[in-house]
Amino acid sequence: MAASSASPIRASADEARVVLDDVAIRRALVRIAHEVVERNETWRDLYLVAIPNGGVPLARIIAAQVREITGLELPVGILDTTLYRDDLVASGERPPLRRTEMPSAVDDRVVVLVDDVVSTGRTIRAAMDALMDFGRPRSVQVVGLVDRGHRELPIKIDFVGKNVPTQREERVKLRGLDGDLEGPLEVVILENDGGRA
Amino acid sequence: MTGRDLLGIEDLERADLERILETAERMQEVGRRDVKKVPTLRGRTLINLFFESSTRTRTSFEIAGKRLSADVVNFTPSSSSLTKAESILDTAMTLDAMDPDAVIVRHKVAGVPKRLADALAAPVINAGDGAHEHPTQALLDCFTVKQEKGRFDGLTVTIIGDITHSRVARSNLYAFTKLGAEVRLAAPPTMLPAGIESLGAKAYTSLREALEGADVVMVLRIQQERLDGCFFPSIREYASTFGIDRAKLRYAKDDVIVMHPGPINRGVEIAHDLADRRPSVILDQVRNGVAVRMAVLYQFAGRSAKREG
Q: Which CATH number is A23-84+96-167 given?
């Protein structure tokens, strides 16, 4: 646990390669919001469900954008997938749980899962299982701000911000999550395990 | 998390306590869903090994395990080979050979969970051992206080009753002190162990002084089954001097809450009309127990340093 206090200095900007800056992220989300509305003629059944932590600010930005386009206030839920993971190892520290807040029922809604970085597809699989425990959505679609490949399950991303080819050892992270919608966001690639940002 | 087993709060760091309480908050959300079950411990087996009777702790662990999709097996001594004089250790080793992912132990003798933890491959969770510790009770008490007060720093927690024989008092003393609260212990002198203040609490034989400005009043059960000596002249005298009622609570803060680990002796340590209504939060404690035990099982079940090492 003591390691977390030592790392921020090491994880300096020069180790991190920025693949999407704040402007690019917001531009991608505007486009995605348009695509989501275009794809789903019955807007009022849409329900954005963010996968924490990265998906939460992204879903809020998409919701704000959808409101500009349609005048409609979409519900935004938060769904932690940790308890549904398939890799809770036999020994060692269990990962911390994050908040789940599902303000509306998912029954008969078109649920749009929002995640920052999609890779193996295992988190999306876990999210779908979690979602089914909350009800029976009419359909499920997926937004991934970054798709870095290396899929291990047959999971398709419906709305991609940017395809970013990566090495398996690299880590791709959305940073700048502390503040509200106003804070600058960026997606970076960290060489191997470049500390926690 | 410190260690593979949960034997007592004494072994845990403040960060461990905070992690468990935070996990419990998330588990509480699971308990509010229509489908109160997550697949986290699917395919894992928990054994409830209760050598001493219990309603709430055993049931609470069982529900917690089932909400995490574990298979929960309840071991009942009266129908077991213990009646054929099998030793506790042999019984536990036999169960351990069936590869459980955690063994939850209650025993009337202090130190039994530790002894089993040394011998078993499965992680051991202490569900109460003699007058030693009852860690999940302390965790759910802390969780309840956190929900009510939102903090620990600067809080005064007054624990009243048979401190000497109480594992609940001991675990709570460790837990609240580590989390930054001030702990006061109040009891007749015969029920206050000498040197208890070295553990970071203040000891009082005057109830009024102990209650002055308290944020939390924790009332312990008078354990008539554990009292073989003469610790106070009569139950009635105890009730009038150390029993908590609304009049005595006036010394505490206006927003004081009253807790009790149960089962309660109405009219002895707590007045009849106090047990069921605010400021009493006794049933909240029971409710929170499930979420806290889910958090404990999440952190400890299936951890097997021995098998891997």
A: 3.40.50.2020
